[in-house]
Hints:
Helix content is about 80%, strand content about 0%. By secondary structure, the protein is mainly alpha-helical.
Amino acid sequence: MKRVWLRVALAAGAGLASLVVCFGGVLAIILLFIASIQFGWIGSSLDPIYFWLGVGAALMFAGTGLSLPARALGAKWDHVTNTALLSGLGLCAFVFFGFVSLLNPFVGMPLALMAMVATPLIGSLFAIREDYHYTVPPVRATMIAAVAIYGASLLAALLAIWLVGGGEGWLYALLVPGIVASTSWVVVPGIVAALRPG
């Protein structure tokens, strides 16, 4: 029993570390983009070569972070790479729909939250795949947890938008559902670690 709790704590901690590393990489790319924009007579403060080097480094940093939960769940080397690639697609979808939500929050936000919750779900389930088969308890429990977290994040989004009422703080209100959805990065690997066989 003690070994199971240690495995759960390790997987949840790896999920939290992955969240911090990935969103640090996304923030670095956004800051690099802002630094490379032409500001009229001021010009760009960043050479394009440094921009692309910085983006490449941030992507490698985020990719390494996406592999942490898979390693904590005991995935083999080929599964770690495949899991990081699949999770990377989910993270890219989150970033894309995050930008869409700035233009139209009622379309982009539900899709961005779905991508945020789906990223650790796909990554954790793919990490424990053995010979292309899954055992039922981890899949069922993680799907229920992911749907519950996604529903809670949608409810938080509606509540935050209603409380702000279209005022100046609506951009900050968009952070609340993102925080709720980001709990899936800790909860889902912990559930998979608790219920995986062996």
